[in-house]
Structures are given as C-alpha cells and as structure tokens.
User: Which sequence fits this backbone?
C-alpha cells in the first residue's frame, strides 16, 4: 500500500472539492485501484483533533511511512517569517513548519493547485501573508523548500497546478507515483507533469473555427473566439482542459468565458484586466508564442477578409443564427 | 475546571480550533479560533472592480459560486444593472447546484460519520449506522460520491467547471444555453431527484416539502414504508436527543435567495420570535477579540477596515465579530426556512428553537424544496432569448451584494474610487456563526451553542462537541478569507 497524507495550507479547499469530482471511476475507487491508502485528509477522514495529531506526529517521528505528501494551498510565511497567519489547529505550530518537517519524511511531495505550486491567488495583490509555493515563489525557483530540494526518489516537488486542477490531473499523477513510473524528465521546467502541460487549452476548444477566421465575440454569451476582445489566452495556456473536459461536458471556454491561464505561475497578476484583451494599435499583445508576429498579423487580416457569413453572424450571437449549409452527399450528375 | 484544545477539526471546510473550559462533565465556556488568515480584503485593494469576479470565488472552494454571485450582485448594485430573466434562471440553477451539493455532502460526508464512531457501539442503531456512514468505507460514501459528481454535471453544462467559474456576471451569464443543453440539465436534475427520493428520503420530494409540523414528520417516520437515510437520522436524533443539543441564540437572519423577476424564492428578513424587515445598515463588525486593528472597535462593513494585528491582547481569532444591531445572529438553512415561513420550520422553532436536529432537518427540507424549483427554472430556460445584456460602465460608488450560501448569509460591500477598488469587505455565513466575542463579551453563535454540551470522562475530542460544531456546516476559509 502507498501511504498518502493530504494537508490544506493557505488556500480555499477548492482543489479537494475538484478532486471529489473525479469520475469513471470515482475518487475512492481510483485510490483503491492504485493501492493508495489515505492516512488522513482534512475533509473526509473520520480522525479529528487528537486522533489526527497522533497520525501526523507518528509520520513526523518516522513511525508511519509517508509515501506521498499532497499539499493544497500556499505556504503562508507571514507575519515576519513566523508563519503565524496559519497555525495547524491544535498543534501550536505553524503550517509552514509542518510542511518543512513532513516534506523531509515524504518519498514524493505533490503541490496540488497553483497556490501550493507557485503561491497562486493567495500571493496576489500586496501578498499580505507573504505566501509562496513549496518550491517556487511565483516564477522564481526557491519557495519554502528551496531550489535544490529533492525527495529521496530524486524528484523535486511535483506541481499539479491549476485553479483548481482537473481531478484527473491529480489522480493520474498519484497513480504514476504509486506505480513508481514518474521520472524527472516527465516534468516541465515549472515542475508540472508533461502529460498534462504539453497540451494547450486551445486544443479542442469548440470556438476553434471562429479563431481560424478571427470571428470574435464582443460580449459575454457570444459564440465567437474570445482571444481578440475577451482576454482569452487559451492559445498560450498549458493544460488539456478542452480535450478532457470538466464536470461532464464543461471547460472555461465552453462556459463562455476566457481562459485566464490558471496553470501558470503568477496568473493571478496578469498586469491587465482578466477579461479584456490588451491591445496595441488595435492588435492584441501576447499573441500565440510559437509563430512570428508578422505572420500572425498577415494571416489574421487574410482570414478576417475571408470569414464566411455563417461565422461572422454566429460569432456575435448567443444562438446559431446561420446554420451550416446542407450539402448533398452525392454530387448531381 | 479543565481546559481542552480541540483541533485540527476535520470534516469542516478549512481550519478550526476550539478551546473548551469543562466542569461537571459540561462545557462551561468555548472560544472559537479561525487559525488561517489570507487577507483577500487587502489583496483586492487597488484592483479593477471586475477582477473581484476572479478573486472572490477563490476565497472558498466549496462556496465558490456563492462568492461569485455576491461579487456580481455588488457590481450590479453599484451600476443599477438588471439581468435578463434567462440569466436569472441560469444564475439560480448554478447557485442552487452548489448549495444543494453542499447540503448533500455535509449530511453524508461531514456530519453523519460521527455517529459511526465506536463509542456508540451500545446503541440499538449502531450496526446499521456504522455500515452505512463510516467515513470513507461506509456504503453511503460509494453511492454519494458518484451521485454528487453526476449532479454537478450541471456545472459543466452551465458554468464550464466547478469550482471557480467566470460565467456569472453582473449583466447576466456568459453561457447561452442551447436546446440540447437545457434538456441535459433536466436529465441531470431528474437523476438527482431519483437519488434523493429512493435513497435519502424514501419518498417523493413533494411529500417531504409538504411536511407541515413536527407531528407530521413524526407520523411520517412512524408510518411510511421502507428505509431511508432521513428515517435513520430521525431514529438517532430521538435516541440521542439531538433536539436538546447545541441551542444558540434567539435572532435569525436571511438575505433571501434565488430572485426571479423581482421576487425571492426564499424570503429575506430577520426572525426574533416574529418576522421583521432586515436593515443592512444595522450590520457592524467588532474586532475587540480579533487579531485585528481598526480605527474604531465596531465599524459598518461599508467603511470596514482590515488590518491584521497580533498585538491585541484580547484577540484569539482572525475572525471579526459581525453583529446585527449589536446582537449575535445565527444564519443558515434553519434561519432561512424559518424566515421563509415554512410550517415545519415554524413548528420546530416552537418545539425547541435552533439545535443540532433542527439545523440538519432544515438542510434536508431545503434539499427537497430547492431541487423541485430547480426543475422549474430549467424548464423555463428559453434558448434564443438573451442570457446577457450589459455589464455597464463602471463608475465610482458603493455596491452591496447579498445572497444566501449553503451555510447562510453572505454579503460583499464594494467601494470604487478612481475606477479601482477602494474598499472590499466580505462578511461570510460562518463569520456570523463562528464569530468570537464582541466588546460586550457577547459570544458568537457556536460559542453560545457549545455552552452546556456534555463531555464524557476522558474524552479528548468530545463527540457531542463534534456534533454541535458540524451541525452549523462551518466553512472556515470563507469565515476569515
């Protein structure tokens, strides 16, 4: 059996809530199938108070083996480096101290969500609690555990980022660890498992046809592409959100709103409105990364000129105004 | 007198520590400490007002949509915006989906497992309850998790994902529901109804919603054929006298919920033995026992301040103490159903005021009532008509957004100056219920409810305390934010 401990640090609990959305099979069947034994989880275990403290103490002393430590939420370092903005209830110790101690005991450390990975939303604005990630502080390596931290399996902290992450990003990462398949090469430079991060949110977006012709949406509820006006950065954001789907049939762009790149460090401070595309001389800044800008602009004006009426009309509508034409299957002789 | 510190409290959302003074096998006094501060009100300062729709849902992963709706209502209030009726229907459906999923998870995953603890092994119901409700391994878990997942497919269809959607906007919703999606939503709702009727209630939702008194409920339990989890709860409740456990104060509040074409499905108001109108200007937050400093001990949220400060010698929590007309208030499903005037709620109030049993029963009643009306909203969605009108042009001023989250009344107070957020104050349901003492030493609702709670010899984590705490379905991440 693989022993897993889950701790909630300075976050919203949404990563756990997302995890409970796992299906086919559900979370507990997935754990059972992977041989994962949940030592303690703050939302679902029976053990509370002193019972929970005994489990955590036993791990700390090495009496219970800790295979995987999952941390959800940012590391809270404030005020003044004390971590006192977040004490682990009943223990008189800061969560920051517990994370440092228990990370040394774990064979694998998994940062679940962008807060634990990079600091995330909790580190937004003036970052009043001096929040950071386990091994990153925003884009900078370091964080709580330091750049050189490796578990005895020679792996850095594994960053299953996202706000929240898709439940299967978490369960599949845990399966990969339980089966001892994860290697350092399978992580990208931000510590994210490449099986998810080598995809873009743009892949499989149902608005792709509108994107091709730059038929853009003007306001929420319009059908068009949301890149030109609505702040969407799905063409640059890493994640398989539109090929895997959320809560059955959903994704951000399917819900009619912009991808805000929540799997990336510092997504919480884009430097401009989340839902309005910043433009220079009418041209969106921050175009797709792997294409020369001049080409993109040239292709865009060409495709805009060639936009079919169907796409131009439907892009600014909340229902299909112009349906696709029905073509006879066999050509008339 | 012995002092117990209970924590970490699990099967509540977020971080909670409770200090208890115990004498004569009873809790004499309780102090509730919310041990995590993140500073959302500080983070929001200087942001674009519409960015609150990205930040505030992330206060809480379990009340994410509730925060979203409160933020969008504050923006709409500031600009005097109305949303089209399709937008109202979808907003209500998404909010109700979160609220009902929370009631459902609370009952099965957070609250009931405490009755499957070994210390109850001498009770006549123990074997059945252990088999059904044991945390993680009970038969309920393997049914409830998939049923909840399926119910939340509504989020995938209407809100893109859960938690943390951006669908809900001041001027409507960004998701224009199409004909096939409307039917998908209805299919999901019918599936959830079937689960509730077969497993949770063992009767139709309508039959549960129509129970009009405690006597009618008891009659139903005694005569209705077949097993259900509601009946099992009633059996436990009778045996352990849960109606005598965890009584809080006498003042209840609801902001009202699920507005449609100018009318709330659940009414707004205050109850102090009779229904009163709610005056938002009577709300203030007191920091006398918080690790906070502000220019005055008590401030209205409209001019509230958030400055963490551990030097307050009287402080014992990051939570401020909200009060209505300087009185402690209880919020949640019991308050909501009472203020809405449901006859079963009124009857339970007459019988025994607020307590562990009544809080749990009113959540279950709400599950039945709201699931029924969700089907109506879904049927009435009209594809082809507008879902979104206009988010307006933000001007400086003040906006207030009030809604009911699963756990009770949630308010956002927004103030915009020079196009930026000048002040943002959030008063969440558990801020009310789990507040610390105020300047007059008046305890919060949980602190009062814990007084007199029995403690058995040698208990380190008194089980009755666990029942009382969880009967409020606390959300600690919202509480302090």
Assistant:
């Amino acid at each position: 059996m693989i022993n897993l401990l889950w701790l909630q640090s300075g976050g919203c609990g949404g990563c756990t809530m997302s995890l409970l959305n796992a299906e086919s099979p559900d979370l507990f069947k997935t754990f059972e199938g992977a041989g994962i034994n949940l030592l303690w989880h703050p939302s679902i275990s029976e053990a509370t108070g002193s019972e929970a403290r005994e489990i955590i103490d036993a791990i700390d002393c090495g009496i219970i083996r800790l295979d995987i430590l999952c941390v959800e939420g940012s590391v809270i370092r404030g005020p003044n480096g004390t971590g006192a903005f977040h004490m682990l209830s009943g223990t008189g110790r800061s969560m920051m101290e517990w994370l440092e101690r228990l990370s040394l005991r774990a064979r694998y450390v998994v940062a679940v969500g962008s807060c634990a990975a990079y600091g995330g939303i909790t580190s937004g604005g003036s970052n009043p609690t001096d929040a950071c990630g386990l091994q990153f502080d925003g884009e900078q390596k370091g964080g709580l555990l330091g750049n050189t931290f490796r578990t005895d399996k020679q792996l850095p902290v594994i960053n299953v980022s996202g706000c929240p992450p898709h439940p299967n990003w978490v369960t599949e990462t845990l399966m990969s660890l339980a089966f001892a398949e994860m290697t350092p090469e399978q992580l990208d430079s931000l510590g994210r498992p490449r099986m998810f991060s080598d995809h873009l949110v743009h892949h499989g977006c149902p608005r792709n046809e509108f994107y091709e012709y730059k038929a853009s949406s003007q306001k929420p509820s319009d059908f068009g592409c949301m890149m030109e006006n609505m702040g969407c950065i799905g063409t640059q954001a890493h994640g398989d959100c539109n090929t895997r789907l959320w809560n059955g049939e959903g994704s951000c762009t399917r819900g009619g709103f912009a991808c805000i790149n929540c799997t990336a460090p510092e997504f919480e401070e884009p430097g401009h409105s989340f839902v309005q595309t910043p433009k220079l001389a009418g041209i969106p800044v921050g175009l797709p990364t792997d294409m020369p800008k001049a080409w993109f602009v040239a292709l865009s004006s060409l495709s805009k000129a060639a936009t079919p009426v169907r796409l131009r009309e439907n892009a600014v509508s909340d229902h299909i105004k112009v349906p696709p034409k029905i073509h006879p299957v066999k050509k008339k002789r | 007198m012995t002092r117990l510190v209970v924590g970490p409290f699990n099967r509540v959302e977020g971080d909670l520590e409770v200090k208890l003074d115990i004498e004569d096998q009873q809790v004499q006094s309780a102090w509730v400490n919310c041990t995590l501060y993140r500073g959302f009100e500080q983070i929001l300062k200087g942001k674009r007002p519409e960015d609150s729709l990205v930040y505030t849902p992330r206060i809480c992963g379990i009340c994410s949509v509730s925060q979203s709706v409160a933020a969008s209502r504050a923006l709409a209030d500031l600009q005097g915006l109305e949303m089209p009726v399709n937008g109202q229907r979808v907003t209500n459906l998404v909010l109700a989906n979160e609220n009902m999923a929370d009631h459902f998870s609370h009952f099965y995953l957070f609250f009931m497992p405490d009755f499957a603890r070994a210390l109850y092994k001498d009770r006549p119901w123990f074997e059945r309850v252990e088999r059904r409700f044991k945390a993680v391994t009970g038969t309920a878990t393997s049914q409830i998790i998939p049923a909840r997942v399926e119910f939340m497919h509504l989020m995938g269809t209407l809100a893109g994902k859960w938690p943390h959607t951006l669908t809900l906007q001041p001027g409507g919703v960004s998701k224009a529901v199409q004909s096939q999606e409307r039917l998908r939503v209805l299919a999901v709702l019918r599936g959830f109804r079937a689960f509730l009727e077969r497993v949770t209630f063992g009767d139709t939702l309508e039959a549960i919603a129509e129970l009009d008194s405690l006597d009618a409920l008891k009659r139903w339990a005694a005569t209705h054929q077949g097993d259900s989890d509601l009946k099992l709860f009633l059996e436990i409740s009778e045996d352990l006298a849960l109606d005598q456990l965890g009584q809080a104060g006498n003042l209840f509040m609801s902001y009202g919920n699920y507005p449609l074409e100018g009318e709330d499905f659940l009414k707004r108001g205050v109850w102090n033995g009779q229904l009163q109108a709610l005056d938002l200007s009577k709300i203030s937050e007191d920091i006398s026992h918080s690790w906070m400093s502000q220019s005055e001990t008590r401030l209205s949220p409209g001019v509230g301040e958030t400055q963490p400060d551990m030097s307050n010698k009287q402080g014992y929590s990051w939570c401020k103490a909200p009060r209505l007309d300087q009185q402690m208030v209880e919020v949640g499903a019991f308050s909501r159903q009472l203020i809405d005037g449901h006859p079963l709620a009124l009857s339970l109030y007459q019988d025994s005021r607020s307590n562990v049993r009544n809080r749990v029963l009113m959540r279950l009643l709400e599950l039945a009532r709201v699931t029924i009306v969700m089907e109506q909203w879904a049927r009435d969605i009209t594809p082809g008509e507008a879902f979104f009108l206009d988010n307006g042009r933000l001007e400086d001023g003040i906006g207030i957004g009030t809604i009911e989250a699963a756990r009770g009344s949630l308010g956002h107070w927004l103030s915009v100056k020079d196009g930026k957020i000048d002040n943002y104050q959030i008063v969440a349901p558990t801020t009310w219920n789990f507040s610390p003492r105020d300047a007059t030493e008046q305890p919060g609702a949980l602190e009062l409810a814990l007084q007199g709670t029995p403690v058995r010899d040698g208990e380190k984590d008194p089980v009755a305390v666990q029942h009382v705490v969880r009967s409020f379905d606390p959300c600690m991440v919202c509480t302090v934010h």
Observations:
- The longest strand of chain B covers residues 408-417.
- Chain B touches chain A through 91 residues (CB under 8 Å).
